[in-house]
Amino acid sequence: MSDLTVIILTFNEDKHIKRCIDSVIELNARVIIVDSFSTDGTCEIARKEGAETFQNPFVNQAQQFQWAIDNCKIDSEWVLRLDADETIDKELVNNINTFIKQDGAGHNGAIFNRKHIFLGKWVKYGGRYPLPMLRLFRTGKAHVELRWMDEHIVLDSGTSCVLEGGFSDDNLNSVSWFIDKHNKYATREVVDIMLKKLDPSSDSKISESTGFSIRLKRFLKQSVYMKLPYFVRPFVYFNFRYILQLGFLDGATGFAYHFMQAFWYRALVDLKCIEVEREWINAKSKVEKIEKLEELSGYCLKDYK
Question: How many domains does the chain have?
């Protein structure tokens, strides 16, 4: 049995899945695909590449990943999470192999610095690189935050380190697909925001060992960004990224990415929050508010009533 299991969540990823699996071949890992009932050839391609495939109805990324941990009989020492449109290069593969061979060199987790590719261009500025993410962890020593959006893998004990090498998010779908994806992301983020307004104590915490940069990003979002008024905060955030973090150096394609991801998306989240609050005005109880949130989002929220 390999010392490593790679978990990849999929839905209609026939453009990406072979490329993703090929990038981890030299890890000699068990590769698990947890698919949300794709209607293309994702599972067939994955099986041809030697991956094991499972299917489970999708709710959100966090619950789907946790389902994989709970139901796929993982008995390896280490677990690595990848998205289907992500790849890792040979340098990072070699560093992962060394890390595992050395039993983590005293650590229980490893952080990768992800770079984002948009319309074929590496977005280097605007705070988008390096984007640290804890993706490799010792089995049983970490958990995924049960959030609807912006979930992180959090170390429960021990420390983490950064592994050098290329780790890329390069989605090959269209701009229309990008817009549709972020519309769905916005709905899930609104669910997260509004549920936490109903129960502030439910907010999860990122442990110190998970990484300073990851904790700082969460702190700034929760304690600074979320305190600003609706529609002011997208404007502030976009200008912070585009001017102070030098996003303008990414050129025309970079402007499109920063505008859509830092302003349009954030404004869409605010608009959907306002819509929910409008529906909540006459709600007389928490249960009624959650029912209104269910109607607007299309998600089943019975566990929160």
Answer: 2
Q: What is the DSSP annotation of 148-193?
A: SSS--EEESSS-EEEPPS-EEEE--S-HHHHHHHHHHHHHHHHHHH
Same domain membership, residue 20 and residue 123: yes
* Cβ contacts of 2 within 8 Å, gap of 6 or more: 28, 29, 30, 76
Whether the predicted pLDDT of 203 surpasses 80 = no
Helices 286-297 and 175-198, interaxial angle, to 10°? 180
Does the pTM surpass 0.85? The reply is yes
Position 15 scores a pLDDT of 97
pLDDT, tens digit, 9 for 90 and up, residues 239-283 = 999 999 999 999 999 999 999 999 999 999 999 999 999 999 999
Q: What is the residue-averaged pLDDT of the chain? A: 95
Crossing angle of helices 265-280 and 175-198, rounded to 10°: 40
Q: In this predicted structure, what is the pLDDT of residue 1?
A: 47
Residues 160 and 270 in one domain: no
DSSP category for residue 295:
H
Looking at the structure, tell me whether residues 253 and 130 fall in a common domain: no
CATH code of 48's domain: 3.90.550.10
* Alpha-carbon span 37 to 43, nearest angstrom: 9
CA neighbor of 83 nearest in space, from 169, 166, 173: 169
Cα separation of 251 and 133, whole Å? 26
CB atoms inside a 10 Å sphere around CB 176: 8
Does residue 305 belong to any structural domain of this protein?
Answer: no
Give the SS3 label for residue 219.
Answer: helix
Determine the Cα–Cα distance for residues 230 and 228; give it in Å rounded to an integer: 7
Whole-Å CA distances, 197 to 156, 191, 192: 26, 10, 9
| Helix ranges (DSSP H) in the chain | 17-23, 42-48, 61-71, 90-101, 175-198, 212-223, 232-239, 251-258, 265-280, 286-297
Provide the pLDDT for residue 2: 67
Give the domain-ending residue among 170, 197, 216. Answer: 170
